[in-house]
Amino acid sequence: GKESAVTITVAGASGDLAKKKIFPALFALYYEGCLPKHFTIYGYARSKMTNEQLRTMISQTLTCRIDQSGNCGDKIEKFLQQCFYHSGQYNSEEDFSQLDKDLKEHEGGGLANRLFYLSVPPDVFIDVARCASLRASSLKGWTRVIVEKPFGRDSESSAELTRGLKNYLTEEQIYRIDHYLGKELVENLSVLRFSNLVFEPLWSRQYIRNVQLIFSEDFGTEGRGGYFDSYGIIRDIMQNHLLQILALFAMEPPISLDAEDIRNEKVKVLRSMRPLHIEDVVVGQYKSHVRGGVKYPGYTDDKTVPSNSITPTFAAAALFIDNARWDGVPFLMKAGKALHNRRAEIRVQFRHVPGHLFKRSFGMDLDQATNELVIRVQPDEAIYLKINNKVPGLGMRLDRSNLNLLYADRYSREIPDAYERLLLDAIEGERRLFIRSDELDAAWSLFTPLLKELEARKVVPELYPYGSRGPVGAHYLAAKYNVRWGDLG
Ligand code: BG6
Q1: CA–centroid distance, residue 201 to ligand 1 (Å)
Q2: Residue 9: what are its φ and ψ, rounded to 5°?
Q3: What is the ipTM of this complex?
Q4: pTM of the model as a whole
Q5: Does the beta carbon of 236 sit less than 6 angstroms from any atom of ligand 1?
Q6: Pure H helices in 343-414
């Protein structure tokens, strides 16, 4: 409940994620009155810093989204007063027991509910988990640990990480974040499907021709080349964000909204997936491009990337779920950096209406006249349905129009950042939107053989210009399954 105290320790407090996402999300929760009345936030990292310096650092990224009351500055000040800093090594039990003393002071002998956010490099993951969990069993209250990807880079390294974490923590204490699951429209997927009679019965191979999961960014790996080059887009986006959306999209109706019921269904989808063949994957890498007199750098122009890197910054894949509901339905994924726009969306293309009564009334190819449901996760959150409609007037001419639910028009509320929802869930012990270890295993089982084969064969990615629509190979891949990418019109 809201009455018990909680301490939140952000390990890796001076990192990018902490600055850009975690602290602002904590502030937003505070601002909205969602944090427990008694909360304390600790930044923990190796560098020396005073509480004041941490506060200054945090305050630079805090914004007030809704500031009608005009007391936002006030709230920022109050929030910052609850933020403290503790410097220490990530593997030092000694340093963590100092932190423990500080936390105890804030807990004042009452319940010790402790949330640790591990925003640290993968090589110190286990160390921090070990140190953070030291006192857990002797405390009255809960200790929970949020971890961020990369969860390894293949099945083996991921399993090793899981074993390492489980030496110190139970599965119930581990909160594996996939921030896409915290996005408003991803959360809404189940509502849209299971609470609408006009959708629920259609959600199968009987009516759905294909499903497309599309992620694009209009910027490159600027500054993150070091991390990115040893992972690549398949590990960075597909194996987690897009696959998680796919599992949620395709799962059987769970028996309840409980975390275990939902995750049980998701893991079944992941385990039903057909092994991915290298022929069903296209990889690309962006190259430099001059547009409007500006030179946009290629991936290998990044100083932190080896000049002969063949790491993909783009990938498209055709996946199949070999169960009764989805037999034969292609699930196409596409993810890329340095493309022409920033967008994440789910597109559901429906089958033809049998009979083609209006065949002659279309000004377009019938193939393009099927219904399509688009769930635009970002930006400009929206759900729209392409339907066929009669063009008003004499005669009989049809065209495609949108039934359009644009969030900005319909809802005046700001959409919370994914991290806000996920942090709040972790504080409240709600694990529905976090990845269970068997889900993680299944996700790696699907992608590991493919990744190994791509790497063993040294598959050279198709180059595409920075700011373009990506490699043409993605079209051939779709065409092979009789699919046209919906985002290209
Ligand atoms: C992260 C990836 O998980 O998601 C990044 O590591 C990517 O490469 C980011 O840019 C995208 O997240 P969002 O919420 O900005 O779409």
Answers
A1: 33
A2: -110, 120
A3: 0.97
A4: 0.95
A5: yes
A6: 407-410
